[in-house]
Amino acid sequence: MAGKKIAGVLGATGSVGQRFILLLANHPHFELKVLGASSRSAGKKYVDAVNWKQTDLLPESATDIIVSECKSEFFKECDIVFSGLDADYAGAIEKEFMEAGIAIVSNAKNYRREQDVPLIVPVVNPEHLDIVAQKLDTAKAQGKPRPGFIICISNCSTAGLVAPLKPLIEKFGPIDALTTTTLQAISGAGFSPGVPGIDILDNIIPYIGGEEDKMEWETKKILAPLAEDKTHVKLLTPEEIKVSAQCNRVAVSDGHTECISLRFKNRPAPSVEQVKTCLKEYVCDAYKLGCHSAPKQTIHVLEQPDRPQPRLDRNRDSGYGVSVGRIREDPLLDFKMVVLSHNTIIGAAGSGVLIAEILLARNLI
Amino acid sequence: MAGKKIAGVLGATGSVGQRFILLLANHPHFELKVLGASSRSAGKKYVDAVNWKQTDLLPESATDIIVSECKSEFFKECDIVFSGLDADYAGAIEKEFMEAGIAIVSNAKNYRREQDVPLIVPVVNPEHLDIVAQKLDTAKAQGKPRPGFIICISNCSTAGLVAPLKPLIEKFGPIDALTTTTLQAISGAGFSPGVPGIDILDNIIPYIGGEEDKMEWETKKILAPLAEDKTHVKLLTPEEIKVSAQCNRVAVSDGHTECISLRFKNRPAPSVEQVKTCLKEYVCDAYKLGCHSAPKQTIHVLEQPDRPQPRLDRNRDSGYGVSVGRIREDPLLDFKMVVLSHNTIIGAAGSGVLIAEILLARNLI
Amino acid sequence: MAGKKIAGVLGATGSVGQRFILLLANHPHFELKVLGASSRSAGKKYVDAVNWKQTDLLPESATDIIVSECKSEFFKECDIVFSGLDADYAGAIEKEFMEAGIAIVSNAKNYRREQDVPLIVPVVNPEHLDIVAQKLDTAKAQGKPRPGFIICISNCSTAGLVAPLKPLIEKFGPIDALTTTTLQAISGAGFSPGVPGIDILDNIIPYIGGEEDKMEWETKKILAPLAEDKTHVKLLTPEEIKVSAQCNRVAVSDGHTECISLRFKNRPAPSVEQVKTCLKEYVCDAYKLGCHSAPKQTIHVLEQPDRPQPRLDRNRDSGYGVSVGRIREDPLLDFKMVVLSHNTIIGAAGSGVLIAEILLARNLI
Amino acid sequence: MAGKKIAGVLGATGSVGQRFILLLANHPHFELKVLGASSRSAGKKYVDAVNWKQTDLLPESATDIIVSECKSEFFKECDIVFSGLDADYAGAIEKEFMEAGIAIVSNAKNYRREQDVPLIVPVVNPEHLDIVAQKLDTAKAQGKPRPGFIICISNCSTAGLVAPLKPLIEKFGPIDALTTTTLQAISGAGFSPGVPGIDILDNIIPYIGGEEDKMEWETKKILAPLAEDKTHVKLLTPEEIKVSAQCNRVAVSDGHTECISLRFKNRPAPSVEQVKTCLKEYVCDAYKLGCHSAPKQTIHVLEQPDRPQPRLDRNRDSGYGVSVGRIREDPLLDFKMVVLSHNTIIGAAGSGVLIAEILLARNLI
Question: What is the set of domains in chain A, with CATH numbers?
């Protein structure tokens, strides 16, 4: 596979790791070579180490890879490493990899709030990757060896929340009030053990530890402008935008649904039709860059009264497309709408792969 | 059963009708004698006419009742008639019953918006029954025969929404901004055929026809004051309160969960602890009147981070208690909280029975 | 699309019809041109007529086809017509089509028991299509116009049941005792309205009308030999094989699981390993014929203790592969095993398409 | 509470322990005083130690009990101890309790196969308690202190399987062939963590570790006669009865459904009606003894074509009643039928409490 970048996956036996492996199988630009997991799995063939729970079969390309421990020494040949590590382990491991000069795209929450770490939803704020470009250029200019770096994938439900906001803000100006109530899929809680069956059969759980804080905080970083020197992002202040999230777990395997309400700062607010048109016409930069996984239609605006629904819409554009429906006026704010995003693809591993494709397109790896 | 009032049920084979029958079985004050359903069922024993779908067994008291057609002539002996009729049939039938002098407590939406028809959540606005008292007194004063009347049970999710608001408004003054996103049980859609299995397995439906409009409108009637002459309710105006609802169907059999946010008009807003204390201390008038089904604890304030949950909390006080949890500050409005109510008991048939108990306590039947 | 056969679908808006349309979209040998449905849908664009419930999006190739009534006059150009009609309508309509000289592959039960109508599971008994070949040859020899014919797709769970039996019987001789207990997906009950949500949430239904009789009868036709004159099938007698089925509906969208036990007539019975090897080595005739949809691995033998499972295995070979696991000795009969088949693909519409591919390969259309 | 026996529960925070606590709350004959759990919970109030997952609220009687470690020294005052311990811990702990002279009714599998330990389904083989009576009498006759003893509750699905067989065997003689395919509720797998949500949403699992062996073995002990000297049970031999089980997990919270087939040794076999009548007329000894929890109707024979169903029938007689439906002839054996039993009541904790009531009625505690 001449010309392909070598990829590694950390946390390869976990739910996000499994999804990375699926997405990297037969990828035109990346060749999956190194899989890292716990010492319990290290030394085994991947097929023997993993409890595969994806509905797609385990790709042959990963079956016989011998699992390594999560140490940078085993990942030296990698141009890019995708981390699906649990937060308990990600902090130390990813730091060690970065200090070893490795480029990491991480789904863990550990470094999301670091000023100089881009927190990216690839269909929303790819320009924040300038932080990495600026870091590489600086090192180069200083004759230093090429530094490693960490790029963080956003929280899964935040990805769905901000996706439609980007084009709306670009067109109609700032949003100063935003609420979301989520109905989140259980795959978001992973498999070890994940959401217990007894808790989600004939039930919902009105609580996901830390999720609301993540959504309320991360939205203010993702939608924020870069500092002039491109070394960091200038967080939006509470005065600029108030975000309120309420998160629930429901009996859905994949696909987070969010009931959002928003208010534009500028008066008068646009019409429902203007909002719909704006969303339909939005083409993300990743698509313009020709990235393999970038959805042609970033936001699918649905007209049926009862859509989007996870079962029927989560796989649009292979899970990279975000669906928005029931766009209507809100008696309290300006608009109410229902947003659906595939929580393990555009909400996690998929974003990671698309971020890597953007890095490749910008020669940052 | 000396001293018991005679009760009838309309729409006896439907989901709400079945719940009325369960609640009226062995009731200390009501004796179920007459069951009305479609012509298809009329003439049959109830046990042979109904496709019983309740998890409690069909009460023996109803088993052998011969089903009648829904005509007032068959219900003459009834002191009170509970209507679980579908809206398509309720309008004409309930009108005919009222004009025949019969007292009806109806779960149908048909007359909810009529000025002189009380729309009651028995743990919230029993005082609106003064409209009926005033009507009966007027007829008596004019020497006219005792008139029939219709009292409407609110929409199921509205009942859960307004239950905690009543004590808060009494204590801290008006609420001027209110949002709710619901996760509603499928029993709310009835059984003929109700929500199709294929639509709710590994899925949610972000739409319930007419529900948002009902919640936004009915809240403004239930929380409104009576007119001085007690002939009607003075609806709250949009200036007084803005209500925004987003309704979803989830894979739960019974129990509507609602993620609500609210803002008090008066500044400063109370503290979280003050809100909790207010809710805990609230005792509904129905309990003070000694009504059989009135919950001792109207609002159960739960402290666990992940409660209330339908599976674990819907049956508090046999479904008459409303649970509130996760009471916390809202970055946009004042407070966010999760409310759970049993949609076919305090949200429908249960409210009907409790309304009848209040009527009995006030000698209005 | 030169060289492609023209296809039509009857019952196009139903669940089986929708699946035919998905499978025929971009098919290398068939071009979908005519869609038939009820008079309510006739005259509308398909996209406006259907309530699309498949997890894959509605193919563009079907979107704008104007729906016809189910009359042969509108299907004259069709080389093959796939019928997903409900049994209530299939009888008369399919007869009219056959008498108009049209070739029909039908999923309806109406003609399955007719002596001269082949009942086909394409990976099991394609040789029964000789009945059609013989009928066409006879007409040709008699100088008559080319007759229409009906080929029936088997009952969905019977397809899964007989798939592993074919290779076992070929290798180890007759099976004289066969039991199956099914755990069947709700998509098998269609969408109008299909299994009610309230019946399948936190529940199973130990009954599927007519299913056990279908399984016990159809098995004896599918596994039977052709009569010498190839005009019909000589049903297996109860002395030759006793079949006992118990059918249940479970909360699974697609994929029927069956717990089967079987006994070979010949003694001694083979070993577990011999059974596994036999199943692994089996290659169906359709694959040998080069049919587009034929699975390379007809029977997937799984070694994990808890497999097959619908969620993880139903899509093997795009739903044409049948999975068998937990092959073990049975204290009462010879062997017990778990069989999983995709009930709307190899169990219904998929089989129909594969049958048509076999007809094409044998120049019977 | 004068006259009540003192009860203790081991494994009090687990799923079976929680069910024991619910059943013992307000029990007329037992007063719950001592709760044992892991060292992690010991010393805490029960309400603070447990993650309560029952749909009924935590009984006040257990709320403030300080949890003890599972050592007999803390249970000295107990007349009876109910063990919901996990098998990993039950072996050593229950042995220590027995050797300390304590009477234990255990839901763990550890001692079920010991010759001198009765394995009891209280509505089926209470006579096997003679082993305990005989042991107590012997000790008494030898002037030894009163010995402790262990009585085992059967495997949950075995309880449902054997319940209808007892009356049939009594009336029509031995059963020599018995098959069962189970559709088992997830509560049977406990809560730590129990069946993962991702494995049971839109899925079934055709495997429950060790379950089939338990059902096939335990049936032969429960249905067997006592040895003449009443010191043990003479297991039924494979020549006397062949039992074949296939076990599956389905998306049901409580209530195991079993599709069973059986053949009587004696010819001719009875008729379907004779089987129904026999089951209807059966009254278990526990009811004759006046035991509090004994179901008046041990076997509920249901006539609807699609019953029993877990959601509608599991709570018959508060979960102590077993429902049997679809009794019909089997083309291979004699009869097929569907059996439903509440897996945590008559299948576990409920049986334990009923066993204790029988012991009490027989003055064995």
Answer: 5-155+349-361 (3.40.50.720), 157-341 (3.30.360.10)
